[in-house]
Amino acid sequence: LTATPFQLGHHELCSILERFEGVAWNMESAPPVGRDAFRVKVSELRQLLDAAQHSALLLDEAWGHLRAEDLVVNGRTYSSAEVEGWWYAVQTSAARTPAIEQVLSHNKTTAERMRAAEKALQPWVIRHLRERIFNGKPRRERLPGKAILDNTPDGVETGIEIAGGALLPFLLAARATACAPDSRPVFAEGIASSYETFLHTRKANEDTTDDDDDEVANGESGDAIGKWYLDRLEEALPLKDHGDSAEHPKIAATAKCVMDAWGKGEKVVVFCHYIQTGRVLRQVISGMMMDQIAQLGAAKLGCKSSEVMVELDRLGRAFDEGRPARRLCDAELTGLLREHPALATQTEALLEVARRYLRTPSFLARFFEFDAAGIDEAAVAKAFATGDMPDWFRDFFEFLANRCVEDERKRYLEAIGTIQTGTITGQDVASTFSEDERQGAAPERLLPNVRLVNGAVKSETRQRLMLTFNSPFFPEVLIASSVMAEGVDLHRFCRYVIHHDLCWNPSTLEQRTGRVDRIGAKVERCGQPIRIYLPYLAETQDEKQYRVVMDRERWFSVVMGKKFKVDARTTDKLAQRIPLPASVAKELAFRLEVKF
């Protein structure tokens, strides 16, 4: 019984099934098939899977021989981005190249053998796949490359452009990569993630990742010429002060996307392969968030940006005991809580947490209408009558009352009580961060809105952050490494996922996205798709990795458990392959799902 992507090699799968030979066959409750017949069935299944795998590997090999000239059908030349149209046209074309004939022949054989193996496998494996269309819209929407900048897929996948001071470092990285084609260019992957990560890849005694990749490597390889290029690259990095980190083209794109979503009240989870990049993103996003709060507050209050935090703190006193705004706020929230008698004993605790959230500068600046005179009852009434705010609380209260047992409800209340704060900067905010989460960051650069989780963060801290992220409250942005990519739920209030760094294993990307695509996810309540961002830098090692991983993802559903090398030479070769059409991958993949 599996809900995860089908990623086992077929010999591994059969080995797992063979373990059932250890059941007590002499018991009355034993399977009626008997031990001998069981062995025969597993053997037959292995043979069918062997045949399907063999055909799939031959198809993969034949597909690798396709070249640009094979994309010409009936006088029309198709681009790699048009492989679906090419595949449809080539099957009815009378004029085919030998390479295409080979592909079509192997595709036919593979399809036949996959269906035979599928029929034999269906009694053994059950999968549950959620519907890909939800409420008339795709459940998931992918935005690759530069689509992260304008939130609009343009139909043609293109990367984020590199310009200005970033050009020289990336050109030097390309030259250094060429000097060691048989090694994995970790430094090139690192600089595509952040400038700081590149610096850490040169320190072989320091961990750069939390080991969520097929092959983890630190340090550098190559000859003296390659090292010379890397030395010049390090000298050319535009890192003079803290603000320069935000000038990195992909850091800037990810931070902009986070800020756009945050401004609309959306939560975002950002996955980073590299530890140092996560720290940089927390710093950059926190700085941009403080600037945005100051700008919004200054526009509403008519004061200087430097005065905004003090003024917003003053306005937040409208939620102090006995004030009209607080009374109306309590009345609105109490009305929602009355719908759930199970929360009667937690009403005051939930009211307190909600008040403290509403009075934060980040919330006031975004969602309340006010001026220097303050926040009155009319402003509170309007905030509760418009936008998504009432739904946030309604959904959370319903979840606590109807989907949580008493102990789980208690854990949620304890978690949101410890992480929530009524201010946004300063020592009282810093006190809500445990030492393992700070990781050397200065107190003035920590915001309760933006939290970081990697291998250095203790399990109890991770658990607390997971619970609070699954509430309407802080954090609103979670920057995570592989430690949050499996076995956790982040779906209650989040439908934005940014894969800032790719992983060479496509199933890792699926596992990450799956954190926000669960039963009861926000997508099912709001009717809007999960937005999956896959930013990559144009004409760099980053784009090559993206091309390879996306093609790998399709082949993974056809060739079970295949391993790939990730050195520069192999990556170049794989990146130049004609992509496998999604329709071919779908047609060949095992169909083992059971719909409920």
Task: Annotate the secondary structure layout.
Blueprint: H1 10-18, H2 35-63, E1 72-73, E2 76-77, H3 83-90, H4 98-121, E3 133-134, E4 137-138, E5 140-144, H5 147-150, H6 167-178, H7 186-193, H8 195-201, H9 224-236, H10 249-263, E6 267-271, H11 275-301, H12 308-315, H13 324-337, H14 347-358, H15 361-367, H16 377-385, H17 389-403, H18 406-419, H19 427-430, H20 435-438, E7 450-453, H21 459-469, E8 477-480, E9 494-499, H22 506-514, H23 522-526, E10 530-534, H24 541-556, H25 568-575, H26 582-588
Parallel strand pairs: 5-10, 6-8, 6-9, 7-8, 9-10
Antiparallel strand pairs: 1-2, 3-4
Structural class: alpha/beta
Strand order of the largest sheet: 5-10-9-6-8-7
Strand tally is 10
**Can you count the helices?**
26
**Overall mean confidence score, pLDDT:** 88
The termini sit apart by 14 Å
Approximately how much beta-strand content do the residues carry?
Answer: 5-15%
Radius of gyration: 27 Å
Portion of residues within helices: 40-55%
- Overall 3D form: globular
Which ranges are low-confidence, i.e. pLDDT below 50, for 5 or more consecutive residues? 214-219
Major β-sheet profile: 6 strands, parallel
